[in-house]
């Protein structure tokens, strides 16, 4: 899009004119001279200095990159000996003022290279390198319940079960192991291994390597599977600032220096100035789905030119040149969560790739197979104007001489508050994939098979959301048709609606009907009312296979801060009474929850504990659950408040340390402390640090608090008894310590000894020296007043 109909540049310039004012003759015959010149275009400085060569015939030349950088468009006809001659550029003339080292260029807009403004990089400094300390984490969830509290001749204890996730992390990767276990009088409970995986991520190549239990990569028309083996996978999440979706761009012209503003979803995301001439905005921020970006160009007289760009952003598309891939080799795993070591004996391989051929076409490919299976397919995703994204894919398979094929197409559209999603998938013949040929029914009677592992013969999905006459409310219709090919067919239609009323209250309703083999009808509708202080009430009616129930629910949400309390009281009155009450508390070392539940005539009690044990930084900590990264913060003093992203997370323990959970891997995390509780004589280099932890690892942050800094606040005076001027610099002669004089002649000086001499540079260039004694006073700030400097 071109912006600048009202504010456009107008420059009349001749072509191929050379006017070399105040310039001496060129160098020796056959030799070119290097000139470094400040470039002015149409009388306005570009603020750039270009490297040019003055040729023996008096002409100027530069490289293509240099010309583009200073704002001139290189053309092939002006090239000579690997350089571009400025005097041969069409619609360009120049005047060289060599004594002032300036080059004055007159040019039309067509001959100028637009200045590129990359909004995606503005305000982003160099990211810290990802780091990982050495340590371990054990996450645990323990759940226990009783039998009916009021039944006689029944043991009160029913049992306890737990889910555990342990990992060892280091700069060389993370080794994780998860399992579930239980204890009760029943033979059902036992130990079951879940995942055992080592992973290592390379943030420079954006690749993650895994060994052990892995999930294969996939596309919208494939089915990922568990494998025991190896995986190499592109991981764009290693760069949180990298946007993989195609982004819109603007082109425009400014006749005079102007102010440029960019608005996305009515929020200003950029403001800056542009010089006269053409410009281009790239990497404009957008939101997923239908979005609209508005660009406003305003000159010094207040005249505005506005342009609006509708755009559709989707993760289904990749930016031009980006490659996403995943490759696995291993043995398919079966009955995950039921059996610890159930692997198919056939070695299988999987490869998946997506490539942004252009910003409007993303190609997809998938292959999987082994010694008795071959399956492969290709697909493409593409935008549909500015309203949505579509995709198509075809695949075929061969298994033991039987062949089959698959066709898949999807569409997502959105315009204003309207949205449509549709998907159609069909298989023909004997289409197979790894999941269908390796799955087998569980032989464990506790877990009867309730699903088909075959690729569905038919799958249709439609969802339509339409606005209603009421403000900010939508009515959504959905339909799903699933034919597994095993005489099981589901055709489910649904409708949902929500509307804000009375300020923050919400009226909602959801209903569905299954027209397939199983039939069925369900309804859930009600009113949700927030009461403040994180308390929310809900009253509703629900209808299903168990009849009609009336529900009332009052909840107080629990926060992430230490000491937060949450609770919930719920009742469901109908054919079978179901009532419950629970309270939870987030302590510094774990989260605990207790509750009681009545179902019919049975009443039982439950309890749950969620937490983590951390070994890092040479210490052992108990903490709340840590699912991603964390930090061990060493403050150096007890009872000091620590914050993560400006949110309080707790205070340091008696050893001056605290575990901060909830950090995000491969993203900048800001950890800060409140120094108000530090000892008054403590010395601290900084109260804020930014860290980027590696994958699910921990980092140790030492704020460098020195409780014995040997520092004092010294007030210096001159020979007249007046305080030295603020801003003067001084140094401690007995060491390398430097300091600055502040207001009232005061300076904070570290690394003092019992006898000290300092030298201070005065305003007139002279220097003075001062001598003073120092004696530490633990727990107090040492202050030395009126130290003369001669």
TrEMBL record:
Organism whose genome encodes this protein: Sinorhizobium garamanticum
Protein name: Fimbria/pilus outer membrane usher protein
Entries under Gene3D superfamilies matching the protein: 2.60.40.3110, Outer membrane usher protein FimD, plug domain (2.60.40.2610)
InterPro entries in the record: Fimb_usher, FimD_plug_dom
Pfam family, one: Usher
């Amino acid at each position: 899009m071109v912006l600048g109909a009202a504010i456009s540049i107008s420059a009349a310039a001749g072509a191929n004119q050379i006017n070399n004012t105040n310039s001496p003759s060129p160098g020796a015959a056959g030799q070119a001279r290097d000139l470094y010149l400040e470039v002015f275009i149409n009388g306005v400085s570009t603020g750039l200095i270009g490297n040019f060569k003055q040729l023996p015939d008096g002409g100027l030349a530069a490289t293509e990159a240099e010309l583009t950088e200073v704002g001139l468009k290189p053309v092939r006809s002006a090239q000579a000996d690997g350089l571009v001659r400025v005097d041969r550029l069409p619609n360009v003339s120049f005047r060289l003022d060599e004594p002032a080292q300036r080059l004055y260029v007159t040019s039309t807009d067509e001959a100028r290279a637009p200045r590129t403004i990359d909004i995606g990089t503005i305000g982003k400094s160099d990211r810290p390198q990802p780091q990982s300390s050495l340590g371990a984490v054990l996450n645990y969830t323990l759940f226990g319940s009783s039998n009916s509290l009021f039944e006689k001749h029944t043991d009160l204890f029913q049992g306890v079960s737990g889910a555990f996730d342990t990992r060892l992390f280091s700069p060389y990767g993370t080794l994780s192991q998860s399992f579930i276990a239980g204890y009760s009088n029943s033979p059902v409970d036992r130990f079951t291994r879940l995942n055992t995986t080592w992973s290592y991520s390379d943030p420079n190549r954006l690749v993650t390597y895994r060994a052990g239990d892995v999930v294969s990569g996939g596309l919208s028309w494939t089915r990922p599977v568990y494998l025991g083996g190896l995986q190499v996978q592109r991981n764009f999440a290693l760069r949180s600032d990298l946007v993989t979706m195609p982004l819109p761009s603007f082109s425009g012209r400014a006749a005079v220096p102007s102010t440029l503003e960019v608005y996305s979803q009515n929020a200003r995301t950029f403001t800056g100035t542009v010089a006269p001439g053409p410009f281009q905005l790239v990497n404009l921020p957008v939101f997923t789905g239908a979005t609209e970006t508005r660009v406003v160009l305003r000159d010094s007289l207040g005249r505005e030119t506005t342009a609006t760009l509708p755009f559709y952003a989707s993760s289904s598309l990749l930016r031009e040149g980006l490659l996403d891939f995943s490759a696995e080799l291993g043995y398919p795993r079966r009955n995950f969560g039921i059996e610890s070591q159930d692997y198919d004996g056939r070695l299988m391989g999987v490869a998946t790739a997506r490539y942004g051929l252009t910003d409007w076409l993303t190609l997809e490919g998938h292959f999987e197979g082994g010694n008795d299976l071959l399956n492969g397919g290709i697909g493409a995703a593409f935008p549909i104007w500015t309203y949505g994204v579509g995709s198509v894919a075809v695949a075929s398979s061969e298994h033991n001489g039987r062949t089959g094929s698959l066709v898949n197409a999807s569409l997502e559209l959105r315009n204003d508050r309207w949205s449509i999603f549709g998907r159609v998938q069909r298989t023909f013949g004997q289409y197979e994939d790894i999941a269908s040929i390796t799955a087998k029914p569980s032989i464990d009677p506790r877990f009867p098979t309730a699903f088909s592992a075959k690729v569905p013969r038919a799958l249709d999905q439609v969802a339509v959301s339409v606005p209603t006459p009421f403000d900010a409310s939508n009515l959504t219709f959905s339909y799903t048709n699933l034919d597994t090919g095993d005489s099981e067919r589901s055709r489910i239609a649904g409708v949902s609606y929500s509307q804000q009323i009375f300020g923050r209250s919400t009226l909602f309703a959801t209903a569905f009907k299954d027209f397939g083999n199983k039939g069925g009808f369900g309804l859930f509708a009600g009113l949700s009312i927030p009461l403040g202080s994180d308390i929310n009430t809900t009253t509703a009616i629900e209808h299903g296979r168990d009849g009609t129930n009336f529900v009332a629910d009052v909840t107080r949400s629990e926060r992430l801060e230490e000491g937060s309390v949450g609770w919930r009281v719920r009742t469901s009155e109908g054919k079978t009474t179901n009532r419950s009450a629970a309270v939870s508390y987030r302590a510094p070392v774990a989260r605990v929850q207790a509750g009681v539940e009545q179902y019919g005539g049975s009443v039982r009690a439950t309890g749950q504990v969620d937490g983590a044990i951390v070994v890092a930084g040479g210490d052992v900590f108990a903490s709340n659950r840590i699912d991603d990264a964390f930090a061990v913060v060493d403050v150096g003093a007890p009872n000091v408040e620590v914050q993560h992203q400006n949110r309080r997370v707790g205070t340091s323990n008696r050893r001056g340390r605290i575990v901060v959970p909830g950090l995000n891997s491969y993203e900048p995390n800001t950890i800060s402390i409140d120094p108000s509780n530090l000892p008054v004589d403590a010395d601290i280099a900084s109260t804020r640090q930014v860290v980027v932890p590696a994958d699910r690892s921990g980092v140790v942050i030492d704020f460098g608090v020195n409780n014995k800094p040997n520092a004092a606040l010294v007030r210096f005076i001159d020979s007249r008894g007046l305080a030295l001027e603020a801003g003067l610099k001084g140094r401690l002669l007995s060491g390398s310590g430097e300091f600055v004089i502040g207001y009232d002649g005061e300076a904070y000086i570290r690394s003092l000894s019992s006898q000290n001499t300092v030298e201070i540079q005065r305003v007139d260039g002279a220097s003075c020296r001062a001598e003073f004694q120092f004696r530490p006073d633990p727990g107090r700030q040492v202050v030395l007043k009126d130290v003369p400097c001669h």
